[in-house]
């Protein structure tokens, strides 16, 4: 699990910006939202322009240099903060893996250029390099004794180098390292706006409709849309030597892409990713930006319940205050963000929040301060 993340000098984050999932409270309701005293389900609120989308990009920066998964390079084109004169962005991750605290720090000049890296388990450093001093790395995993220590490729991550060139011995520390790789490899970020805008988990561009057709999931998607309140019948027809998804109106078939509303297309994207989320151990961590941009508030609640049932640790960003209630999650799972800080509701007020409190009403009355 991801327990804490911080960033400095990346996009809109000038000063240190810390997201802490380890500060859970002792609420006795909706306990499934917290695992191992760590927030497992988080919903983030913030005004337009405070950086909610950039928070997701910051957390998922790790995908670009540790994995071969999809990264959507264009969104990382403008990398460093415009007001900060430092030459690098600093990333700090803390994980709970196999009961141990795993810390991964690195600095980058841009999306590709890695200046420094450090990896530790339970406060013991097992790998590090700082190319401002020299190109020689410290590597202390058993099974890496014959690895070349000089790493003069600024675009190659030290941890990825270890992963690609080592036959690690079987022991507890190496198992944790491999579990860390697995966690990062299974992270997923997507938006509800476009099916090709995602980071992590998969390789290459993906067509949601083509995937549904290839896996013969047309009837399942139809059921999913009907359950969400969109009454329709789906079909597949051949057009210009390609199979396309259509709405079936008896004697007529009209292409899905041509007449589906933004909300329906958004649901199709969600359906696509839910099929992966529902498979055990396929996704480790999920971030959906503006997950309910086109949903009715009742549908938004259904989607959160669906995501909770997967057991996957997730962050959702939204402007929908009707979701801020104790029937759905709990106070320590709701976060308020501005351009400088992000904090959970219990840390944003001096009041002791209880299950009976109307969180939305308190939020609209400005009872919470970041």
Layout of strands and helices, then pairs:
Blueprint (H helix, E strand, L loop, with lengths): L1 E7 L8 E4 L13 E2 L2 E2 L1 E5 L6 H8 L1 H6 L22 E9 L2 E9 L5 E8 L2 E7 L7 E2 L18 H8 L6 H14 L1 E5 L6 E2 L8 H7 L3 H10 L6 E6 L2 E7 L4 E3 H4 L2 H16 L7 E5 L7 H14 L2 E5 L16 E4 L4 E3 L14 H6 L6
Parallel strand pairs: 5-17, 5-18, 11-16, 16-17
Antiparallel strand pairs: 1-2, 1-6, 3-4, 6-7, 7-8, 8-9, 9-10, 11-12, 13-14, 14-15, 18-19
Number of H/I helices: 10
Element order: H for helix, E for strand = EEEEEHHEEEEEHHEEHHEEEHHEHEEEH
Q: Report the mean per-residue pLDDT as an integer.
A: 93
What fraction strand? Answer: 25-35%
Query: What form results from the Cα inertia axes?
Result: globular
User: Would you tell me the structural class of the helices and strands?
Assistant: alpha+beta
> Tell me about the biggest sheet?
7 strands, antiparallel
- Please give the CATH architecture of the largest domain: 3-Layer(aba) Sandwich
Q: What is the number of domains?
A: 2
Q: Order of strands across the biggest sheet?
A: 2-1-6-7-8-9-10
Helix percentage range: 25-40%
